[in-house]
Amino acid sequence: MVRWLGFEPKRVTYSSDNFERLYALAEALVEKGKAYVCHCTKTEIIAQRGGGEGEGKPRYACAHRDRPTSESLAEFRAMRDGKYEAGEAALRMKQNLDDGNPQMWDLFAYRIPDKDHRRHHRTGDKWRIYPTYDFTHCLCDSFEGITHSLCTTEFELSRVSYEWLCDQLEVDKPMQREYGRLNVSGTVLSKRKIIELVNNGHAHGWDDPRLYTLIALRRRGIPPGAILSFVNELGVTKAPSNIELKRFETSIRRYLELTVPRLMLVLEPLAVIIDDLDDDHLELLDVPFSKDPTYGSHKVPFTKKVYIERSDFREVDSDDYFRLAPGKSVGLLKAPFPITATSFDKDPKTGEVTVVHAKYEKPLDGSAPKKPKSFIHWVASSPVHNSPIKATVRAFNPLFKSNNPAAHPDGFLADINPESEQIFPDAMIESGFKEIRNRAPWPAEAGEKINNAETRNCQAEGAAPAATEPKPETVRFQGMRVAYFCVDRETTTDNLILNKIVTLKEDIGKD
To answer: What is the distance between the alpha carbons of residues 116 and 386, in angstroms, rounded to a whole number?
Structure first.
């Protein structure tokens, strides 16, 4: 994801690469008299820190805190060798219980995981004990030559213990510095809560486009440049930032407006037959991909039969309605002349309109046509031009009903929006999509093609590299009058799937 955002890591490291070194330093800390093996229960430890029933009591030391160094060292090695099970023993740092900072109240350095979580994904079954974050973080930073360790302000109190451990073990001491956390309202960012969403079937996975993980934003089609632009707008501060979803989407919308091409897409097609055109009528209209002439243009067929958005037609007209209705004219975007609805057919069983009949308002005397009050988008039926291209569109709404799901009295899962995903299985796109797909990624300057490092990995594993093939989510475009879209990774040869990135405006209602 770092590379996707446009940055090349100096190197990729793993704390597990340092397990041997960390263990040796843990023994050294014990030998210095600055760590001990504790056998207290969770309840006892809470009480030692002044918590539990009748909170506010004085803090007091663990009964094992002053055991002989040799005894703690032997017990620590017994932990390593598998003598104890989870919760029966742990290594704690001997810090300062009189300090007002909880991060100095004899934090844990090593724990024993339960058997189900003992196997490590990189070191396998080699270790039966594992270092904690409080022990590992500062030491690995020191090993790797980090000068400034950056973290969010929730770790500000941890700076004292971070520096304490480096000083006790006499290793290089990086400077920890904190910045304010960026929170987005109307969603959850906690890994624990996201796991619950996935495990309970409310999200399809960590890359579900309704989530706000980086991989979810990528799958939804948000370009890395748009994320960087948004963060740059906010700046960096120590104060926590609470950003509404609509502000984030406004920033994304503004970025896409200038960087992706435009096509016509119909979500819920309704056939319109222009009765006074010949059956073989064909006009190839030159339609630009953007207001920016450098994007070029493409030819779009205009025929006797076109498809419009079902919501762009009403059976009964009204004064405040400006789209297609019986006796009313509308312009078809980029078409030379407007059309007027003359009649419509309905399904006798469902009562749904199936076809609208119209006439082409081309003046017989060659004069200029009367300009219609509104224009609608459309897609023509022209099999020879591979039009329309059929697709399934996934439109995403907020996953939660409120701006603060965590505040729901029954828990954040009770705030789930049951209409957060809407599927349009019969959507249609104009034929220009093929060129847009071939010219991806959009925007071109984002450079989202498979990078050299990934290509080298493919070659090392014996797979054929695809260095020039754009990834699905980089095929982005504006569906005129509808929203911005991208191709989803589940697309197949026979089933084109599109994800809605963001609407064209905050209020998507049309006249």
So the answer is: 55
User: DSSP E strands: which ranges in 221-268?
Assistant: 241-243, 262-263, 265-266
Amino acid at 230: F
Distance set, CA 511 to CA 3, 376, 427, 479 (Å): 43, 11, 22, 18
Amino acid identity at 138: C
Residue type, 391: A
**Helix ranges restricted to H, 14-88:** 19-31, 42-48, 69-80
Using alpha carbons, select from 206, 190, 204 the residue that is nearest to residue 420.
Answer: 204
The whole-angstrom separation of Cα 395 and Cα 244 is 20
Q: Using alpha carbons, list the distances in angstroms from residue 242 to 223, 234, 237, 247, 404.
A: 22, 11, 12, 10, 11
At 53 the pLDDT is 65
Instruction: Mark the ranges of the chain whose per-residue pLDDT is less than 70.
Output: 52-55, 446-447, 449-469, 506-511
Separation CA 449–CA 473 (nearest Å): 11
Tokens of 280: 């073989």
Strand order in the sheet with 339-346: 375-376, 329-332, 339-346, 353-360, 269-274, 305-309, 378-380
pLDDT in tens, 227-242: 999 999 988 889 888 8
Q: Which residues contact 476 (CB under 8 A, 6 or more apart)?
A: 221, 223, 256, 260, 440, 441, 442, 443, 484, 485, 486, 501
CA 301/CA 285 separation, integer angstroms = 6
d(CA 404, CA 416): 11
Helix ranges (H only) for 83-157 are 133-143
Bridge partner residues of 236 (DSSP): none
Beta strand spans in 224-352 (E): 241-243, 262-263, 265-266, 269-274, 282-288, 297-303, 305-309, 329-332, 339-346
Both ends of the chain: CA-CA distance in Å?
Answer: 41
Q: How far apart, in whole angstroms, are the C-alpha atoms of residue 279 and residue 273? A: 10
The predicted model scores a pTM of 0.84
415-429 as b/e: b if 16+ CB within 10 A? bbbeebbeebeebbb
Distance CA 52, CA 183 (A): 31
- Residue pLDDT, tens place only, 424-466: 999 999 999 999 999 999 998 765 755 434 433 443 344 444 4
Report the C-alpha gap between 50 and 60 in whole angstroms. Answer: 8
